[in-house]
Amino acid sequence: MKSAMEMLAGDDRQVRYRAFDVCSIREDFPILARQVHGKPLVYLDNAATSQKPQVVIDTIQRYYTEENANIHRGAYYLSEQATQAYEDARVKVQHFLHARSEREIIFTRGVTEAINLVAHCYGRKTLNAGDEIIISAMEHHSNIVPWQIICEEKGAILRVVPIDDAGEFLLDEFEKLLNPRTKLVAVTHVSNALGTITPVRQIIDMAHHRHIPVLIDGAQAVPHFKVDVQELDCEFYGFSGHKLYGPTGIGILYGKAELLEAMPPYQGGGDMIRSVTFEKTLYAPIPSKFEAGTPHIEGGIGLGAAIDYLEGIGMEAINAYEQELLAYAMNAVGAIPGVRIFGTAREKAGVISFSLEGVHPHDIATILDQEGIAIRTGHHCAQPVMERFGVPAMARASLAFYNTKSEIDALVAGIHKVKEVFD
Amino acid sequence: MSDLRELYQDLIIDHSKRPRNFKVLETADRKLEGYNPLCGDKVTVFLELEDDRVKNVSFQGSGCAISTASASVMTETVKGKTLAEVEALFDVFHQMVTGKPPAAGNAPELGKLAFFPGCQSFPLASNVPPLPGIRCMQLYKEQGIRCRRSEPLNREIP
């Protein structure tokens, strides 16, 4: 990941970076203008879900106002229009991830369903007793539990790559875990609890050296920097729309076509079949094979609008701005006496997890809430990470490109207020 | 700051920083654990009963200031009371923190427990169902019910 300074070094990029105007960007997000408890909202829970730009809200409203019809069915104008809008969104996702074909883009409810789909369809078909799946110690529960379920069913074994005190993925430990029984590697691209950007490039190379397929959980990665699945060469990549400034209930599973074609269907129903008789049913080609039933149409279209919006700004400009803001926030929060920062990996994306000596994280969040500041507190659906650092919970501020340095200053002032209350 | 002061009163700050009866009770003949997966709060309550009276009580665990203080105040409040009295207290406390109007009649005095009603207007405290203080009281209530059985369900002491 390039730092903001490195980005500035390139002349062509300098122009783009300078054009990044956070004030006008904030105006695109209507919710940012509201107040909470009489104070301006400072929204720092973007790793949980991001706010939506007006263009996404308008797109969904326009869909229901002007285009609503079921897709892939009707031989009439509205249905054709809705189908076109939905399938256009698939192509937008394809380009966003730089996938070879839109056939490799499957709409799901979110990354959770994307991972469950791979566990269910790929895992069930390929795993046998004694086989192994490798994950890391900083996975979200959604990249742990689906594997535990399939491992229990198949008598397979889940192996966990440890992390160090900084929250770095330990490649040498990973190397030791790889063996002929390893059938799949499933790791996060960015840790939701620690912000660590994992060395996915090396992870994938090391796994491929042994012909082991790799799934990447990209939920916390795609909102922050450009992801190219062909360059990564991973077999599967998943993310959630609502963390990418799009609607909830929609997500993406990217999978290499040859793997998806060999996998059995996920759920049975309409839209996933070629023909049905009581004797034999033929399944539809990918991606329809994995998309039974009427999908989340406005979700897909809304996600497409979010991607258009982000590409209008540019993921490089977004990343450069966020990296600078993250460095500012890490310094400012880390400088408060009594604060302990969790997650100090060399390469990080927009997450500052911390604790304050003598104060439970819930109390930090409750007091900050009174100041209009929204942060997350708890185990962040990553209980093994809490265990690794020996804490029951963490407070977490997570950034988006609409956050500002003055919002970080408000967070710092809020943490000082927490200290006052507990002094 | 006044809203905050309503929630983080001196009593709550005091009991969260210096919780009373915060220890493993060696003489306990009952213990019960409570865990809230939503917030990660963990509490273990230790209880020593003499006939139907709470002779000794303690707790251990981790939670936010309100959780810890409510458990601490609760141990102080129930010590020496009969199980029937504890149950009556629980009902009144539960009604109070969940914002229900108090039942008519001769309800028991809450004492220091009455300092907790403000919690319901603070999302993190009230959205955690049940509020750890209630959970702690519930442990007593469950314990009360269990204690009437001939065999206590949990005799294990670490």
In brief:
The complex is a heterodimer of chains A (423) and B (158). Chain A has 423 residues and is α/β, with parallel strands linked by helices.
Q: Could you explain the architecture of this structure?
A:
The longest helix of chain A is centred in the N-terminal third of the chain and has 21 residues, at 77-97. In chain A, helix 6 packs parallel to helix 7 (145-154), helix 13 (315-334) packs parallel to helix 16 (405-422) and helix 14 (361-370) crosses helix 16 (405-422). Chain A has helices spanning 4-9, 11-19, 22-27, 54-67, 77-97, 111-126, 145-154, 171-177, 200-209, 229-232, 257-262, 297-313, 315-334, 361-370, 383-389, 405-422; strands spanning 35-36, 39-40, 42-43, 105-108, 132-136, 157-161, 182-188, 214-217, 236-240, 251-255, 273-276, 281-283, 339-342, 351-356, 373-374, 376-378, 394-398. With 423 residues, chain A is α/β, with parallel strands linked by helices. Helix content of chain A is 43%, strand content 16%. Chain A starts with a helix and ends with a helix. Chain A contains 16 helices and 17 strands. Chain B has a 3-stranded antiparallel beta sheet, with helices on one face. Chain B has one domain (2-147): Sufe protein. Chain: A (Alpha-Beta Complex). With 158 residues, chain B is an alpha+beta fold. In chain B, a hairpin with a 4-residue loop joins strand 1 (30-36) and strand 2. Chain B has helices at residues 2-7, 10-17, 65-78, 83-97, 123-126, 132-147, and strands at 30-36, 41-50, 53-62. The chains are: A alpha/beta (423), B alpha+beta (158). At the A-B interface, helix 14 and helix 16 of A face helix 1, helix 2, helix 3 and helix 5 of B.
